[in-house]
């Protein structure tokens, strides 16, 4: 990241990424919301420092049609940890947590409390009040503005339908109690708007 041991340089490099013009949802607002959620969910964390750093970096690389965003974000986080003089072990844990934020990451929920927590935090947007959720969906469409509408509707419908088909959206009881019901209502609403009224 070119930080050379300076935390301010690490932050400046991260700041440039989250302000990229093609981002509309994966911005500082999303990171701030995730950190707010972590604020009340922190007792679930086994390694709160690793979870927090992973949230700061989990969308550092974001290309809407990229297939390795999480992997590249994880690499940046490990580099940043080294640049700031943090332990190699912390960098490794942070990188692993970031890769767990990939939707559908196999086995993420079984890899420990911190993996369950970070995936729940990242998906908490699904269970927000409808007004915020609508704004999220609109921002995602803007990020995929170059994708033809019919292709977007099909692929988005497949993704949301897959989420809705899961026995549970959230891996922890705390998040299920707080978000599960509303998240399912929001997903059904989105699928209806995308042309999947029977979801």
Question: Which short descriptors sum up this protein?
Answer:
single chain, mainly alpha, 9 helices
Annotate the secondary structure layout.
Elements (H helix, E strand, L loop, with lengths): L6 H12 L9 H14 L6 H10 L11 H15 L4 H13 L12 H11 L6 H14 L5 H17 L7 H21 L6
In short:
The chain has 199 residues and is mainly alpha-helical. It contains nine helices and no strands. It has one domain (7-193): Catalytic domain of cyclic nucleotide phosphodiesterase 4b2b.
Could you please describe the fold and organization of this structure?
With 199 residues, this protein is mostly helical. It has a single domain, classed as 3'5'-cyclic nucleotide phosphodiesterase, catalytic domain (Catalytic domain of cyclic nucleotide phosphodiesterase 4b2b). The chain is built from nine helices and no strands. Helix 4 runs antiparallel to helix 5. The longest helix is centred in the last third of the chain and has 21 residues. The protein is globular, with a radius of gyration of 17 Å. 32% of the residues are buried. The model has no long low-confidence stretch (mean pLDDT 93).
* Overall tally of domains: 1
**Overall shape:** globular
Helix tally equals: 9
CATH topology: Catalytic domain of cyclic nucleotide phosphodiesterase 4b2b
Structural class: mainly alpha
